[in-house]
Write a structure and sequence with these properties.
There is one protein chain. Helix 2 crosses helix 3. The protein contains 5 helices and 2 strands; from the N terminus they run αααααββ. By secondary structure, the protein is mainly alpha-helical.
Length: 129
C-alpha cells in the first residue's frame, strides 16, 4: 500500500471527503481552500511529498498512525528489505496503531484475516486500484 492510499483509506474511514479535510487543515504558506483540496488530492495520489508537518496536519484532521505512514514512506523510498512491513486493513486502512473503534462499545477491532479487520468483515470490498 502506498502512503497516499493509506491516507485516503483512513480519511474515508473517518467519513471525510477531501473537501472536508481541506476545510480542516491549515498550511504555511496559507493556501486557499481550492488549492488545499488540490494539494490533498496530490498527496493521496502520491505526487506531493509528505513531510512530518504534513503528517501532523493530517493527523489533526483524521486518525492516522504517523509510525505506519513513515513506514510506508520508507518502504517506497528504500524497498521492502529495509523496512518492516506494517499490517494494514485493505478496506479501511486501520492498523494496530490506529484500530477501528466500535461506536457502541468503544472496543478496538481485531484481525479477521491477514489483511482485513473485524470491522470490515462482511463489507463489500472496493475493487483493487
Amino acid at each position: 500500500m502506498t502512503p497516499g492510499t493509506y491516507l485516503a483509506k483512513r480519511r474515508h474511514a473517518a467519513g471525510l471527503s477531501i473537501d472536508d479535510v481541506a476545510a480542516l487543515v491549515s498550511t504555511s504558506p496559507r493556501l486557499g481552500e481550492i488549492d488545499r483540496r488540490a494539494w490533498i488530492d496530490r498527496i493521496e495520489k502520491d505526487v506531493a511529498a509528505i513531510s512530518p508537518d504534513v503528517a501532523a496536519a493530517l493527523a489533526d484532521a483524521f486518525p492516522i498512525s504517523r509510525r505506519v505512514l513513515q513506514q510506508l514512506i520508507d518502504l517506497r523510498s528504500y524497498g521492502s528489505g529495509a523496512v518492516e512491513l506494517p499490517r494494514i486493513c485493505l478496506d479501511c486502512g486501520c492498523t494496530e496503531f490506529d484500530a477501528c473503534l466500535d461506536p457502541l462499545t468503544g472496543t478496538a477491532c481485531a484481525w479477521a484475516s491477514e489483511d482485513l479487520c473485524t470491522s470490515c468483515t462482511g463489507k463489500d470490498l472496493p475493487d483493487a486500484a
